[in-house]
């Protein structure tokens, strides 16, 4: 449960079926990860102010979305690979 200082009652409750030996920091991280996911989705939906968010893609065909996501994933992986090379001192 989350009970902010000075409040008369808790503000949030979570129920978990995780193993009993799960640490408190892990429980808090998992409970709060939903907020992060919702926050990121909201940012994707409005397009981070760039004018092209998920709302702008709604109503389009699945194949276009699939191509877009595949290209984005490929770009991300390429950037990771290049960053790893630079860290290793390779051109």
UniProtKB/TrEMBL annotation:
It comes from Actinoplanes italicus. This is DDE family transposase. InterPro entries: RNaseH-like_sf. It comes from the Bacteria.
